[in-house]
């Protein structure tokens, strides 16, 4: 996106009408019409909150420990790991959403490999689609299984040291 277009969108984001009321640009959110990266944006936020909440069952006082493990668990590397471990459990629809997001044009951060970044983007898009579609039970199931395989791997690695 060119800078001028970005500036235009930012200025328009919370534009006021003649009465000073900030108007929404859309009447509803249709997950099937959102870009895969917008779905991943929501899925990332959901998984962060899910993990932070789950970690309170393991530690409730040391925020630094919570933050360290939270950051590790929601990393692109571990999200990619969770996807690979559970990929055979995804429905056909979820695989389609995953592939769209995996193939979406985006820039990988320096802290993860390009493949892990794309895998994690696909994982997050599936979560975002489930969240916005109101499919809470399936969303919880995938998040719980992902959390379990990730913390098992972390535990196994800690026990080897």
UniProtKB/TrEMBL annotation:
Location relative to the cell: Cytoplasm
Active site: 44
Domain RNase III residue range list: 38-133
MF terms in GO: ribonuclease III activity; rRNA binding
Cofactors: Mg(2+)
Record-level GO cellular component terms: cytoplasm
Enzyme class label: hydrolase
Keywords: Cytoplasm, Endonuclease, Hydrolase, Magnesium, Nuclease, Ribosome biogenesis, RNA-binding, rRNA processing, rRNA-binding
Any matching Pfam family: Ribonuclease_3
EC number(s) from the headed UniProt entry: 3.1.26.-
InterPro entries listed in its UniProt record: Mini3_fam, RNase_III_dom, RNase_III_sf
Keyword set includes Ion transport: no
Role: Involved in correct processing of both the 5' and 3' ends of 23S rRNA precursor. Processes 30S rRNA precursor transcript even in absence of ribonuclease 3 (Rnc); Rnc processes 30S rRNA into smaller rRNA precursors.
Subunit structure: Homodimer.
Protein name, entry field: Mini-ribonuclease 3
Organism placement in taxonomy: Bacteria, Bacillati, Bacillota, Negativicutes, Selenomonadales
This protein's encoding gene: mrnC
